[in-house]
């Protein structure tokens, strides 16, 4: 097939779009792949639609190989199923809600667990119908607070979402692995390097959850990995608690004057100057117990304060806290919060005073006191004494304080020991490109999806959910494949196989180009032909580079010597070949025979 | 490719869905093609998605042949462009409107003229860029008051909508014909008989407009056609005015007592009894002038009364009136309306009294008086005298009455003369399957789409709009291709090429079926194989008929004699063939080689 630029809907732009923050956004708009319609909402122009279609086809192939069947759900759905699972509220402002002419509540679905569950409930009733994996490639909606970065985080976006249905845990494991394997094949075919990391499973109510991250310093997700093979999203990190220490024989807690020490650093300085360690070593921030007051805004509109005690050398990681306290929204406590609790002395908060424990047992104060997992029994701390200008020294966990529970919300740091014992971890950044998830029975229970097992007994179905953001993947590929002159697509997803440029006004050039184009078409290539008669070579080369089809043929002055040039967009090499051999040479050199 | 029922997402249902009003809805749900999610909103199951994909592919092929380029717009769009063209309001309750988290108004697009216009304005600026035809296949939304009839009129539906852009009227004509020709090819390939009828162009502001109707007695649209080739939707009908008659010499109008004649029939009876015609013939309803009071609810919230005078043997056709008075909504005047206008005497309304004209010149009464085109100068009428129990006889148009204009809103009847002089028309019914439309410059003017012409002068672009309802077409094909046992797909859109049934529990039967399936796959057929081991032949045959793949191969008892049966779903013929020849026989008999 041959498409001619003189008869194509394409306009490349010289200027970057003013709202573009990332390179994929800039280049996809400038090269004529997409066009903005509203914040985070884009139209797909012919070039973009072709790339999107190729990515979708690779995903479809691998879903079919994994035994999944394609269906298609509407974007516009009724409120009720999402009400049953609580997500109508949980999604908060992120959900597009509307009413129809009769006043019924509808939503634009951000994800489809509920209706897939109900569909299977509607149609299936026996273990014989299972296992089942079904998927769709479909446009989804999320009302992002800051839609930006082009397609990387849009308000309308295309996803492949698959769901598996089993009646045993072993079945779910097998369905999960089939999808996980398919994802590995998909990302390999797309040329996307990936790391599979453990991800937070809590918010969706499931058990096993892994993310496919593309490792890149500009990624928005942080993950950790150990040389021994551990890899996890920081949100999924579990802190390894150190062994407990004997309490017996430790000196009693003492309160000391520590005026003007509202920060950890000032406290450490004063402690070293006025109350040095008995062993002669210096106090460090790690010897202090920092008590951070967080406000949780619950879905029911209530606001709750919690205090987290953690080693003074670490900060609370708000993303980890969001996971720990989901679905509540988290923020630092405000002056107004403190005003309601005069017992909390800012800068000097602690779980103990000279009269004994003052936090813990929420019933007494209305505030939960939670501890970092490192604060094990027998550890000794310097911490606030709940009096302005005073701190407790030698406060021993398990003896001097009471906690309402654990809060594993401290930042993870390079060198921290992996929870599986595989050694210290390093921190890295990545972009999420896929997510596989064992939902377990949460949705099936909420919506009543049960089947009869071999013994005629009703059992609740166990599910998995597996997502790839198609439009996000496209943006990531663009983000990774470009240079200062434009895009450089991998062959598997390039909008056309070969780009042919005829330069100059000489009829011989256009005749040679037509001949090459005919040969390429006969060889099965999908060709985009710049046949514009009155455009300068400079503009034509610029467009060829901007558009980024990896194989380019230039018909120029060389045609008088019977040659055209093969231009490799990625290496920038130009190789002259006889006009009649251009197609055969490209055919022989094609890395991926599927694409031609 | 082979798909096995033991590993497929399919459940046929014995019962019709309770809300199904039409056969396509019943069968598509029962046979496992679609599943309802909300009124007028459906999920597509694997079988349905395959049929939909085949229809879309035929449309894509023909759009490409017609030189149109595919793009894809979002469903969720900002209010502003629709505000500029007035359609944000004009759509009334039919538009799904919503707000985002920042309070901006958004809509789910029912059609995309505005944003296609803006896209071209964004990117193109010269006559050299034109002509341009671009299209999308995309999910659209309309909040129908009575979503019913399954996919025939849904609230979410898939459309192919194309738009052409030209800078000359001749260019628009050519672009229009290219789309019109493509539609003829599409419907021919889909096996859908069609009639091309003139359609109302007014509401969209354009000039030429034609609908493709599939003629069927159960169609929801009425159209007329003459033996001489005229065909039009009744909404587009233009009444041929008869020649005027000389006024001079006609007797003056006289008012007669006609008590108890509030209806046309009672009036005709009294006229014949008490005031017979001078020529001895009988008065008929066609001699009376009926004056119908309509209320127009305008978009700005105001309510206007108009009176339409038309021959007493015809009624107002409200659909035609809706077109004539668009975008106002029409209803019959209510008692409250009459109460506000005591001058209107129900049953005796007319344009004249003994003191002269009483209607016409809206400024005098606040009510426009409009006449049917048949009421030409010199025609003489019996009509109300604006006094209870009195009528005027011999009221002559052009002499005794004043009108504010023409209202061509009377019903069209079989035998009416076609407006192009091609003879009397007959009435027929049809289902709309496509619409081609010359929008002209309305959208380009409203949104400022201009290009520089050959002389460097800015000219406004002229546009066309061309629509096919993909999901509606699918339903219509299902509506037309079925019998009491289920669906019977045309080969071009059947979800699979061949359905293979293995009946009984005999291993030899399954071996023979496997052998046929392998041969079919090797021959390039896409096969659905009912390999369920423990299902009775009756259930299997029932499912085969319900699902409706037109070519069925049955492996049954005959395999002991080395034969299977080829079952033609449409003719119900069963032909035994040797096991090894089944695939070749089907290949030879395939009507459409493209489908295999």
Summarize, please.
Two copies of one chain form a homodimer. With 596 residues, chain A is α+β, with helices and mostly antiparallel strands.
Q: What does this protein look like?
A:
The structure is a homodimer of 596-residue chains. With 596 residues, chain A is α+β, with helices and mostly antiparallel strands. Chain A folds into 3 domains: 33-181 and 440-478, Bira Bifunctional Protein, Domain 2 (BirA Bifunctional Protein, domain 2, 2-Layer Sandwich); 254-406, YbaK/aminoacyl-tRNA synthetase-associated domain (YbaK protein); 488-595, Rossmann fold, CATH 3.40.50. Helix content of chain A is 25%, strand content 29%. In chain A, the strands form 9 sheets. In chain A, strands 4, 8, 9, 10, 11, 12, 13, 24 and 27 form a 9-stranded mixed sheet that branches. The first copy, chain A, has a 6-stranded mixed sheet with strand order 1-31-30-32-33-34, sandwiched between helices. The longest helix of chain A is centred in the N-terminal third of the chain and has 21 residues, at 169-189. The model of chain A is unreliable at 592-596 (pLDDT under 50). The interface between A and B is large, with 51 and 50 residues.
């Amino acid at each position: 097939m041959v498409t001619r630029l003189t008869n194509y809907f394409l306009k490349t732009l010289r200027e970057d779009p003013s709202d573009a923050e990332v390179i994929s956004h800039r280049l996809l708009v400038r090269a004529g792949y997409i066009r903005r319609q509203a914040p985070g909402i884009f139209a797909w122009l012919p070039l973009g639609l072709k790339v999107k279609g190729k990515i979708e086809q690779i995903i479809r192939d691998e879903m079919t190989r994994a035994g999944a069947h394609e269906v298609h759900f509407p974007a516009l759905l009724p409120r009720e199923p999402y009400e049953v699972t609580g997500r109508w509220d949980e999604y908060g402002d992120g959900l597009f809600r509307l009413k129809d002419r009769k006043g019924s509540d509808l939503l634009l679905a951000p994800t489809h667990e509920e209706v897939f569950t109900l569909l299977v409930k509607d149609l299936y009733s026996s273990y014989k119908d299972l296992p089942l994996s079904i998927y769709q490639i479909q446009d989804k909606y999320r009302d992002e607070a800051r839609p930006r970065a082009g397609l990387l985080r849009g308000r309308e976006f295309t996803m492949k979402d698959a769901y598996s249905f089993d009646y045993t845990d072993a079945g779910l494991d097998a369905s999960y692995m089939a999808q996980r394997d398919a994802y590995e094949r998909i990302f390999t075919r797309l040329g996307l390097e990936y790391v599979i990391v453990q991800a937070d499973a809590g918010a969706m109510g499931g058990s096993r959850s892994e993310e496919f991250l593309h490792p890149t310093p500009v990624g928005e997700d942080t993950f950790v990995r150990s040389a021994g093979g551990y890899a996890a999203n920081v949100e999924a990190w579990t802190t390894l608690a150190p062994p407990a220490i004997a309490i017996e024989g430790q000196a009693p807690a003492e309160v000391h004057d520590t005026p003007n020490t509202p920060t950890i650093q000032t406290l450490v300085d004063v402690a070293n100057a006025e109350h040095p360690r008995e062993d002669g070593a210096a106090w460090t921030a790690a010897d202090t117990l920092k008590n951070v007051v967080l406000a949780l805004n619950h879905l029911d509109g209530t606001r709750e304060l919690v205090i987290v005690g953690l080693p003074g050398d670490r900060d609370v990681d708000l993303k980890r806290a969001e996971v720990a306290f989901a679905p509540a929204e988290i923020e630092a406590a405000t002056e107004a919060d403190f005003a309601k609790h005069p017992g909390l002395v800012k800068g000097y908060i602690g779980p103990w005073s000279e009269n004994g424990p003052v936090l813990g047992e929420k019933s007494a104060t209305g505030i939960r006191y939670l501890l970092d997992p490192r604060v094990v029994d027998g550890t000794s701390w310097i911490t606030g004494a709940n009096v302005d200008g005073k701190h407790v020294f030698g406060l021993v966990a398990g003896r001097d304080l009471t906690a309402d529970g654990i809060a594993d919300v401290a930042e993870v740091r390079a060198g921290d020991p992996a929870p599986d014992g595989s050694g210290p971890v390093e921190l890295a950044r990545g972009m999420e490109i896929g997510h596989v998830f064992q939902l377990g029975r949460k949705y099936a229970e909420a919506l009543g999806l049960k089947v009869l097992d071999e013994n005629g007994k009703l059992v609740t179905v166990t599910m998995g959910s597996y997502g790839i953001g198609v439009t996000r993947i496209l943006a990531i590929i663009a983000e990774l494949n470009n240079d200062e002159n434009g895009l450089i697509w991998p062959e598997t997803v390039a909008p056309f196989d070969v780009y042919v440029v005829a330069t100059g006004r000489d009829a011989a050039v256009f005749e040679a180009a037509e001949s090459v184009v005919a040969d390429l078409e006969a060889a099965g290539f999908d060709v985009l032909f710049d046949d514009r008669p009155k455009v300068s070579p400079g503009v034509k080369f610029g467009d060829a580079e901007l558009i980024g089809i990896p194989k380019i043929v230039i018909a120029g002055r060389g045609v008088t010597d019977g040659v055209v040039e093969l231009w490799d967009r990625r290496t920038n090499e130009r190789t002259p070949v006889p006009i009649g051999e251009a197609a055969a040479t490209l055919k022989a050199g094609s890395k991926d025979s599927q694409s031609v």
